[in-house]
Amino acid sequence: MPERRARIRALGKHLPSLVLTNEELVERFGLEVDAAWIESRTGIRSRHWMPEGVTTSDMVVAAAEQVLERADVRAEDLDRLVLATISPDQPSPSTAVRVARRIGARCPAFDVSAACAGFLYGLDLARASVLAGEERVLVMAADARSRYVDPNDRRSVVLFADGCAGALVEASDAPGFLSVVIGAEGRERPGAEVPAGGAREPASHATVDAGRHYVQVDGRREIFDLFVRFTREACERALDVAGVGWDDVDLFVTHQGNAFMVQEVVDALGIPPDRAVNDVTHHGNTSSATVPIALTEAWDARRIGPGSLVLMTSVGAGYTFGAAVHRF
Hints:
Blueprint: E1 5-14, E2 18-21, H1 22-29, H2 35-42, E3 46-49, H3 56-71, E4 80-84, H4 95-103, E5 109-112, H5 118-131, E6 136-144, H6 154-159, E7 162-172, E8 177-184, E9 192-193, H7 205-209, E10 216-217, H8 220-242, E11 251-253, H9 259-269, H10 290-300, E12 309-316, E13 320-327
Parallel strand pairs: 4-5, 4-6, 11-12
Antiparallel strand pairs: 1-7, 2-3, 6-7, 8-13, 9-10, 12-13
Helix pairs in contact: 1-2, 3-4, 8-9
């Protein structure tokens, strides 16, 4: 009897209709820098932000419907829906439940909070679920970071963006996931956080007035150093479990948090630039959605295809991290 495996059957994405260039961002927020300064610090030229009246679940529904259409699978045939997000529609109930209702799924549906590593955490859950007997798991990752940026903090305003993408993971006889590894190392400084709004610091007039509901980011150099460290650890573990080496990887997809951060990881790991994705320029940092957006666009551009070996990895606030090796 063939060994039961799990593989990605289809990918899909959704990017909000509102596109803000660096020039438009400078004008909108009265930033004391110009477009060239933003690009020189982040590598970003434009980003997608959700228009007023649009929310996270809207992005997820649009992307999920694309994934299901490409896979030729009905929502009612899903066994599980996992949504990685730190930008839910509301604290409770989960945004995944709202998405399930809107697309017509009636299966376990829940959110996963692992920041920028959320998609890898979702893939780990999906793979385990399929190997345990489920047939189809939809893994989506979506974040609306524009709703959490402090308009007076030029660093977060120019960096963060909105988007959603995901994958349908299904049972298969053919190779798919060769490995998925995830981990976390809680640190006093988490890299990035939204301090208020939870049980530790409930929302109040005082927290709103103090700007405690905006995303706050640690120093760039500290984040870069830890990003490289955890990326290397996750990737080496995933490659070892998969029984393959760096030279076997056809495409390397890391978290697209900042163009220079991506380049630093690529250089540190010795990956040829033509085998790496760096798409921050037109998307900005969409948190958990960066990896599946990049993966979907690589597939659509035919940078990968049947037989391609892809190494996906991400590091998120917390610090959470993960990596996956997948044969398409």
